[in-house]
Amino acid sequence: MAQMDMELKKAFTEMQINKIETTKKMNMIDMKCSMVKNGKQKYELTEKGTSDLKDDTRVYLSVGRMFVLTDVDHMRSDLKAKQEKCDKAIELLNKKKEFLVKSLKDQEDGLRELVQQRKEADAASK
């Protein structure tokens, strides 16, 4: 009995620690996702703001600490590529979050099974 209690206590402690770590990871993923969404929104607003520019308009693309002269089509294609990159990053972050939720649920189910086995063992011994 004492052995089973220690095993159960250890499992609860491990699950609690894992749940805290998983919650922290999920919060970090949410923050990263929010940052990527803000970046995507910035690119969309820039694209909307430049949509009425003529093709011969001089535009400058930010490259590090300098600006490079480019044409409007190149700038638009660059903005679209950045938006697609943001979409892929958001999708990847959501998949990571789903995996964390699934692993936490699996661990909780395993703990429930352990508690159920304990109850069954106690009932059989009485």
TrEMBL record:
The keyword Chaperone applies. GO terms for molecular function: protein folding chaperone; unfolded protein binding. Keywords: Chaperone. GO terms for cellular component: cytoplasm; prefoldin complex. Pfam families: Prefoldin_2. Belongs to the prefoldin subunit beta family. This is (Mediterranean fruit fly) hypothetical protein. It comes from Ceratitis capitata (Mediterranean fruit fly).
